[in-house]
Write a structure and sequence with these properties.
Strand content: under 5%
Shape: extended
Structural class: mainly alpha
Number of helices: 5
Helix content: 55-70%
Largest sheet: none
């Protein structure tokens, strides 16, 4: 895939884009790609990237979709992994 570069972007625009990316749970690059795909109207192009970014909820994935993807990647639980509560306690106590 080709790369694009935008030069001389005002600081306030970058800040707003970063905030938008954070709100959409994406990296800045992911957010820019989503915006570019939407602007180019790739909804009928059928590319893997546009399908991934669109999802069923206008570019956002539901918790059910994320859980299903996770189950596909990690079909068996990790036996020796610490419990989530233990990880949170460690992080809290480290402060």
């Amino acid at each position: 895939m080709p790369n694009l570069s935008i030069k001389n972007v005002p600081d306030d625009v970058v800040a707003r884009l970063r905030e938008r990316a954070r709100a959409n749970h994406r990296s800045l690059q992911g957010e820019l790609l989503a915006l570019a795909c939407r602007a180019a109207d790739t909804s009928d192009a059928g590319t893997e990237t546009s399908r991934h970014l669109r999802g069923e909820a206008g570019g956002r994935k539901s918790i059910e979709q994320i859980a299903a993807e996770h189950r596909q990647r990690q079909s068996t639980p990790v036996a020796d992994a610490p419990r989530a509560a233990e990880l949170i306690r460690r992080e809290r106590d480290a402060r």
